[in-house]
User: Which sequence fits this backbone?
């Protein structure tokens, strides 16, 4: 597994397993499968209503806690200082952990600074190893860092070959915030799995179009958290570290960028 170093020195796997829409036994078994294959980063959120299953899988997997990297996110109605303080304790209890590796504000709430104050306290007390934000566009990010005190380690946003977030990535890099891509396969939109550009490039490396889409993001410095419950897809997603895209390939994929959301988020 490859890693990125966050702005506080914490090492984060560059590829992990997203758990949005995974529930119950399927969620728990999918995480066990992924960890057994070598995944270390597991991404969840209070909004997903599966923290308890994630925690169960962590306890069952047999991998030392320090070898795993667990991310969760706080959302409404805990969008206040006190609400966030309580929510952190809830997540620790549900995940059955002594600490969380990365904690994010799930959306750009008006009360984000209040929430972040509670997160900074938990960070300073050792309950959280790194703190950050999610779904903040360039303007919201720029406004947020004016008064946040601790620059976010990560901003997790929609990013894929059709929405490459170049302006946001450049803005954040100036301040040391890493970008992390949710839905790196665009949820199958724009026929990404059969895209002719990605497929043609993939033939050269004996890789699939989706592996090329994922490799492009990783090579650009994105952390990625594709969601799947299928073992073969987990293996396929991990099998992207044995080759490098050449400049011409990168240029061709760069031209797929439409510079707009496919999910209406921003």
Assistant:
């Amino acid at each position: 597994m490859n890693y990125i170093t966050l702005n506080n020195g914490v090492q984060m796997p560059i590829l992990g397993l997203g758990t949005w829409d995974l529930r119950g036994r399927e969620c728990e078994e999918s995480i066990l499968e992924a960890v057994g294959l070598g995944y270390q980063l597991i991404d969840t959120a209070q909004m997903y209503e599966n923290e308890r299953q994630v925690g169960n899988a962590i306890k069952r997997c047999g991998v030392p806690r320090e070898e795993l990297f667990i991310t969760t996110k706080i959302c409404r109605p805990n969008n206040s200082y006190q609400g966030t303080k309580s929510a952190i304790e809830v997540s620790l209890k549900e995940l059955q952990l002594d600490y969380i590796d990365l904690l994010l504000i799930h959306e750009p709430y008006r009360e984000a600074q209040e929430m972040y104050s509670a997160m900074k306290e938990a960070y300073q007390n050792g309950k959280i190893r790194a703190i950050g934000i999610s779904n903040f566009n360039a303007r919201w990010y720029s406004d947020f860092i004016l008064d946040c005190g601790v620059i976010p380690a990560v901003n997790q946003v929609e990013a894929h070959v059709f929405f490459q977030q170049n302006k946001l990535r450049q803005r954040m890099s100036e301040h040391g915030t890493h970008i992390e891509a949710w839905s790196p396969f665009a949820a199958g939109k724009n026929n990404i799995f059969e895209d002719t550009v990605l497929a043609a490039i993939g033939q050269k490396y004996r890789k699939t179009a989706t592996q090329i889409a994922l490799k492009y993001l990783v090579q650009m410095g994105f952390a990625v958290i594709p969601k799947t419950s299928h073992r073969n897809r987990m293996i396929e997603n991990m099998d992207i570290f044995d080759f490098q895209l050449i400049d011409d390939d990168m240029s061709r994929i760069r031209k797929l960028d439409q510079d707009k959301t496919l999910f209406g988020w921003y």
About this structure: The first helix runs from residue 24 to 37. The beta strands are 3-5, 11-13, 16-18, 41-43, 69-74, 102-105, 131-134, 154-158, 178-182, 223-224. The chain has one domain: 11-187+222-231.
